[in-house]
Amino acid sequence: MKQAPMLSSAFLHPAGQTLPEPLLALRKQRASLLVDMPLPTRKTENWKYSSKYLKLSDEMAISLPAEGKTGNSLAVSGYKVVFRNGILIPEASDYPDLDGITIQSFSDLSNEEADVLALQLGSTLDHDQAQFARLNGARFDDGLLVRLEAGAVLDQPLFIIHETAADATGSAFPRIFVEAGANSQITLVEEYTSSGNAPAFVNTVTEFTLADSANVTSIRLNMEGESVQHIGATGVVQNHGSRFESHCVGFGGPLRRHDLQVRLVGEEAETKLNGVVVTQGKQHYDNHTSIDHVAANCNSEETYRNIAADQSHAIFNGRIHIHQDAQKSFADMNNKNLLLNNGAEIDTKPELEIYADDVKCAHGATIGQLDEESIFYLLSRGIGRRDANVLLTMAFINELVSQIPLEVVRDTAQARLNEFFEQTFQEI
């Protein structure tokens, strides 16, 4: 019987030692749990479509250096935090100076503050489903802690720019923890970009805890280059009356994977998840989402759309779990997929698990191609075939792109989508 591949021990030796002692101890403890960790295979249910794209070498275990020039694609004029290869760069960042809002790097925390954080890190995630979040817990060299006291409101979005400089083979492990106090409000934007062409591995974890009536908007823009494998996890825990809104836009690569897990543990909590993915060439993107309705009277709405061209591969696996005490839950999941070529592949698996009887839930998924009648209609109005294809494809996802609440992010996403259309439909 063939033995399953194991995570190389080279990945269990972090480079950075500037963290406070409680976080160093936590990292060491998490690393000890990863000894002989099996890597996912096709037999691993939540990796069955993605395991073959995972390529980890010992050289890739080396932490990429933080030195070098920073630059970002978002035209950010407000608050921003810049990470380079997983290390926070203070001189390139611009923190808000507002009462009730604290933003600190992990390395700047006192031992007392780090003790508290060590108990929180990883608490929002199901690590059996987001296996590589464990690796991040053993390897993060730095991180960002954002704390909002009760009633605090961040008056502008906070942009977190993650830059991967893939000038040499290596890895980066960014980590973010956001604690939103009661009645607080924040919009946080994560942008992932890269430069260089060496093989690189980026493993990210972002966590949100929302106290009663907190309001958090999370925007995630994944635009790394063709040499970067990216595995990310986002964990969310919501208390009474809180609202969490997520907008994820992803462009394919050699391996892209995002696990988004939301737990509604307080009554009258609401969550809204929107996602758009486009892939071309031989790219790959895998979205796994999970919404747990633990408390009663909570609402969730989820809409994801994928477009796959050429020989690329996109995956959506969405799960909604209605617990026994979650009476009067409302949950709706919708996934629509568009294949632009016969060689492209999209796999979708919506899951609905209900243990309460007084609920209103629905889920659905479709996979199709561009409608020839619609194309013919546009052609008959004097529109060229290429432009007709672009119009129909953009219309397929524009409903979600237009809901992104920040113009600068919409413009950045639209520019990359235009590149996608230019390359995908150039032969027509």
UniProtKB/TrEMBL annotation:
NCBIfam families: sufD. It comes from Marinobacter litoralis. InterPro entries: Fe-S_cluster_assembly_SufBD (IPR055346), SUF_FeS_clus_asmbl_SufBD_core (IPR000825), SUF_FeS_clus_asmbl_SufBD_sf (IPR037284), SUF_FeS_clus_asmbl_SufD (IPR011542). This is FeS cluster assembly protein SufD. The lineage of its organism: Bacteria, Pseudomonadati, Pseudomonadota, Gammaproteobacteria, Pseudomonadales. Residues 168-396 form the SUF system FeS cluster assembly SufBD core domain. The gene is sufD. One of its GO terms (biological process) is iron-sulfur cluster assembly. Pfam families: SUFBD_core (PF01458).
